[in-house]
User: Fold these one by one.
Assistant:
Number 1:
Amino acid sequence: MKHKIIALALLLGMTLIQGCCFSGCPDDIGGEPIFESQYEPIYLERSVFEQSIAKESARPIENSGKIYVFGDLLFVNEKYKGFHIFSNTNPSNPQAVAFLKIPGVTDMAIRNNVYFFNQAVDLVAVDFNPLTTTPPAVTKRVIETFPPIQSPDGFLPYDIPENNIVVGWQLRN
């Protein structure tokens, strides 16, 4: 009896494994499998990348990401490009203040008035006051903290040129 149960369990296991092996055939999903991204990476040289954080004039939002509220300020992420900053003293009518350009950024946190950003693969701490003309100053950079930015269709970049960072992706022509 014990041998029959083991044989039945093995047979059931083999059937399950066989079903998994054939579930991803191109015939089953209606086309050729995609082994290459439909997007190409956008690179910045590390030296340019590390000097790329800057405060600019306010501009329209094109591709918004996360939204943060800090005091009377709103921060709206422009995926992989930076943060739009709004004065929210009148919540029914926020006023655009500036754009903080940070290539490769998608997220931020604020603690003790220090702004932390994921700039592509790096974690940066920035001393910054959005309401003054003083430019943002990177006070600390921890390089290679995060993995490279994936393409919108889920691929990781390969053959990244030496001393270059992927800061975004663009659709191939």
Note: The radius of gyration is 24 Å.
Number 2:
Amino acid sequence: MDLCSIPGPIVNFLPVPIGFSYFLAESTTRQVIAPNVVTPVDYRNVIYNRMNEYNLFGSQFTATRAGVYKFCAQTKVRGTTAATSGSLTLGLMVNNSVVTSLAVAMVQGRTCIDANGCATSVNLSAGDVVRVVLFSTTNQSIIIESGYFEGARTS
């Protein structure tokens, strides 16, 4: 069994107060990422979507209420060939601007790496759109094998 194709671990955000946003979506389909391009990560397998603020087609969260939010994301990545090398940055984008780096990792060949992290205090206004993006400076394309994206309003 290839553990790179299984997303997780998942941060346990529950319990989230009633009336507060919470979503969890997985990436279970391979996604090829070209070097030197900020690329949104696809998380299309929705597990939870309280308040219906997560759009699986855009793999994005749209806040319907202002507040402080917590977001966590993970990607399991590998190079396309044994010669693939370089770094990648997993980031959080709000309204088309990268606001924070969640993880930085080194890619070496076809070895599976796990890049994950959380942003614990993201202030959002109603209507703000949040996505996870990946940027690589590798010498070749890389492949996202799996991952997850989750978030919740905390206040």
Note: The radius of gyration is 15 Å.
